[in-house]
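User: Hi! Is it possible to get a structure for several chains at once, not just one? Here's what I have:
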Amino acid sequence: MSLSSRLHRAIQNAADRGDGSTRAERVVLRFFVLTSAALFLAGLAGTIAAGRTASTPNLPELLQALPSESSDDLLLLALLTLCATPLARLVALTVIHLRPGRLTVALLAIVVMAMLGLGFLLGLHD
Amino acid sequence: MTAQSFPWLIVTGALTGLIGSLLGVGGGVFLVPVLVLLFHVPMHLAVGTSLVVVVTTSSTVGALRGAAGTPNLPLGLVLELSTLVGAIGGGLVAGLVPARALVAIFGLILLPIGVLMWKRNRPAAAATPATSGYQVRNLPAGLSVSFLAGAISGLLGVGGGIVKIPALTLLCGVPTKVAVATSNFMIGITAAASVFLYIGRREVEPMLTAAVVVGVMIGSGFGLALGRKLEGWQIRRVFAALLWITATQMLLRAGGWWLR
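Assistant: Yes, the chains can be modeled jointly so their relative placement is included. Here is the combined structure:
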């Protein structure tokens, strides 16, 4: 079966069944959204209370914020967590679809993740 | 950015989240003009902030919508292949375009988006109840429109849902409810790809983004609850009229005729 036929079949199967988001996918989304919200609130409150303004980072500086606990860096960590949410969703989708053997959907999710990675790498070197 | 601006930025974010979740779009078409025209945020920073907001709207709605969300995930993933190429291209081109030109392009793009918003989902179309058993057709056309939506998203910081939803319903034969959920799934991934390019150019300001994002998370929750009680097509028509006014203001700003 050609790649095009496989894709069409995967799409049509989902259309026939009316598949939607799974509970596991929503749990992952909730975790990332709530974590980034808490970090944004803590970072915003800390930075305003200290009377400072956070610097505008580039991507390497954003990654360096990972081990830190200052309020400025909490904002950067929040930003990173939020921007990583779609990636986490794709990882969850891959795992969810690998288990029942829906390889086409899992592979599609991996290819989309690779393209997200390309965006990240281009940002790193911009 | 002063400390006095923050409550207003949170309110702006809440309104963006409310509108985004009510209309099934990312909210960038509302947020970017407000940041540029009212808060005098530089255009590229406004676009970068808006992309983070699109990720927020998509993720929050996806997390809260529950079982009512019925995206066609394989379709969304296939269309993302061309959308992401457009989004990364748009994000790279945005770094080369002067701010005033970007404001003018945004104003011009808002005009047809207003028309799409006005025409979309009139009562007869909204009555389509099916979320399964439909035939997906015209995938190559869907891929082409998705590329365009991705390029607009990467260039202007909008989700592109307003382009994707009509394409999914009219070209690909997807029911409206599924199209809205599939578009919401896609816009977060699309925006995430180009937001890294904006961060790389120092065009995402953390405090501005934090204030807006906190508001968006609150507004999206209210929007989902309110959406069950309001007539969607009436809201869309009011919003379409607002878009045309905003487009005019953006074009005036680009021409240097904006009066403060």
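The radius of gyration of chain A is 19 Å. The mean pLDDT of chain A is 84.

User: Great, thank you!
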